[in-house]
Design brief:
- The protein has 12 helices and 7 strands.
- It has 283 residues and is α+β, with helices and mostly antiparallel strands.
- Strands 2-4-3-1-5-6-7 form a 7-stranded mixed beta sheet, sandwiched between helices.
- The longest helix has 22 residues.
- It is elongated.
């Protein structure tokens, strides 16, 4: 095997390396797609059969090698029949990913911002309590595991339905990871800070606690007042109106299409909130 690999790479160094890399990439994408579906069990079975075929061929077990060869030959046809829905879905996803709108490709966060804004404003008007955390660079797996797995596409209707009172998932936080709802009814760490105002409840304390531990962005709708708040690290933005909410969501979630300097963005936001608080007579 080692001699064969050596001859393979020495005779065609560039093309063989590219060939191997492409094969590994295809295998990687198959595993990523199959994760969380019954197709993953199929891939595990295929890997075991291929490994057994290699071992039997190496050891000279001719009968077993022949039987495994037949299994592999007919297994391809059987897999197409058994997993036809999954294969069709994979081809549809491939077509959408290749030919989807270029703007959406550069800015996948735009739909997320729209859905979050619509859901938060709807729940704010009706005083529906909500707690939504969006994963950033630091993974939130340990918090996702405390909730109910969903792995669902994001829509404002789904977010609203999750937090409707007296439904199974309305308690706890929704966690968004990679532009999908990873889980609902998750437990977040409560902050022990003595600087948190007494009028803020458990949702705000949980959002601040997560901000202290990770770089996640957390959105809160108060069940008592309907006010909207945003927490990022140790920054708490309270009582946001629609315009303020939109600006902060774009600041934290938008993938910028232009190479605008980060300091200019922060200055624009600071000037906006300074003007808003001045008009209201705030500090």
């Amino acid at each position: 095997m080692i001699d064969w690999l050596g001859n393979f790479f020495s005779n065609r160094p560039l093309s063989s390396i590219l060939d191997v890399l492409l094969v590994w990439y295809i295998i990687y994408r198959l595993i990523i797609y199959a994760r969380g579906t019954r197709a993953l069990n199929l891939l595990k079975g295929v890997a075991i059969i291929i490994a057994a075929k290699f071992i039997s061929s190496t050891l000279g077990l001719q009968t077993i090698d022949w039987l495994l060869g037949q299994v592999i030959s007919w297994g391809v046809v059987a897999s197409i029949i058994l997993f036809q829905p999954e294969l069709r879905k994979a081809l549809e996803n491939l077509g959408r990913n290749l030919f989807r709108n270029r703007k959406h490709l550069r800015n996948p966060s735009q739909k997320l911002i729209d859905d979050l804004e619509n859901a938060l404003l709807y729940m704010s008007k009706r005083k529906i309590g909500a707690l939504i955390s969006i994963e950033a660079n630091e993974k939130l797996d340990e918090y996702i595991e405390t909730g109910t797995p969903m792995n669902s596409e994001i829509s404002n209707q789904l977010l609203i339905n999750i937090f409707v009172p007296n439904t199974p998932l309305h308690d706890g936080a929704v966690i968004i990871s990679d532009y999908r709802i990873a889980a609902a009814s998750c437990y977040l760490p409560l902050s022990e800070s003595s600087l948190i105002p007494k009028e803020l409840g458990t949702r705000h304390r949980a959002a601040i606690g997560l901000g202290e531990a990770t770089d996640a962005l957390t959105l809160i709708v108060s069940e008592e007042t309907g006010s909207i708040s945003i927490v990022k690290h140790d920054h708490l933005h309270r009582d946001l109106d629609q315009e303020s909410l939109r600006i902060l969501l774009n600041q934290y979630l938008m993938i910028n299409e232009e190479d605008k300097d980060e300091q200019d963005i922060l200055d624009d936001i600071r000037d906006f909130f300074t003007a808003k608080f001045t008009q209201k007579g705030g500090k």
